[in-house]
């Protein structure tokens, strides 16, 4: 028989199961014990090419020449970029590069300084 856990918020022993969720009648807290729900709430960790964890405000260096879409110019290897901002999506770094302006980069083409 499944044992229903106590409420993680108020430690009430009167929690009950409602579909795929557990509910506490005392504090009205709802939670799930499945691994899927825990992974959805976990924040995505963005790493550079060397496996270092990146965060907002970091300084990075471009590790290979990157063609700028819609232009004939190239962001050269070794270009230093300050004050990055992490975003969701395929290109997970928003930044401003001197001489190019605002750009989005993939974390696999940069390394943390």
Distinctive features:
113 residues; three-stranded antiparallel β-sheet; rod-shaped; mainly beta
Can you describe what's shown?
InterPro entries: YjdM (IPR004624), YjdM_C (IPR013988), YjdM_N (IPR013987). The chain is mainly beta and 113 residues long. It is built from one helix and eleven strands, in the order E-E-E-H-E-E-E-E-E-E-E-E. Strands 1-2-3 form a three-stranded antiparallel sheet, with no helix packed on it. The protein has a three-stranded antiparallel sheet with strand order 7-4-11, with no helix packed on it. The longest helix is centred in the middle third of the chain and has 7 residues. It is rod-shaped, with a radius of gyration of 22 Å. The termini are far apart. The mean pLDDT is 88.
In short:
The chain is built from one helix and eleven strands, in the order E-E-E-H-E-E-E-E-E-E-E-E.
**Spans where pLDDT lies below 50 across 5 or more residues:** none
Number of helices: 1
E-strand count: 11
Helix and strand content put the structural class at mainly beta
Q: Ends: how far apart?
A: 54 Å
Largest sheet: 3 strands, antiparallel
Global geometry: rod-shaped
Q: Please tell me the overall pLDDT.
A: 88
- The strand line-up of the biggest sheet is 1-2-3
Strand content: 25-35%
Q: Indicate the radius of gyration in whole angstroms.
A: 22 Å
Name the helix and strand elements from N-terminus to C-terminus, one letter apiece.
EEEHEEEEEEEE
Helix content: under 10%
Question: What does the secondary structure layout of this molecule look like, with pairings?
Answer:
Layout (H helix, E strand, L loop, with lengths): L15 E3 L2 E3 L6 E2 L3 H7 L18 E3 L3 E2 L6 E2 L4 E2 L3 E2 L6 E5 L3 E5 L4 E3 L1
């Amino acid at each position: 028989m499944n044992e229903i856990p106590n409420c993680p918020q108020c430690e009430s022993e009167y929690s009950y199961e409602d579909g795929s969720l557990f509910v506490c009648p005392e504090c009205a807290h709802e939670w799930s014990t499945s691994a899927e729900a825990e992974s959805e709430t976990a924040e995505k960790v963005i790493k550079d090419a060397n496996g270092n964890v990146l965060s907002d405000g970091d300084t990075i260096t471009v590790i290979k020449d990157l063609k700028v879409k819609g232009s004939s110019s190239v962001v050269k290897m070794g270009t230093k970029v300050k004050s990055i901002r992490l975003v969701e999506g395929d290109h997970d770094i928003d930044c401003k590069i001197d001489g190019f302006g605002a750009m989005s980069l993939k974390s696999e083409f940069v390394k943390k300084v």
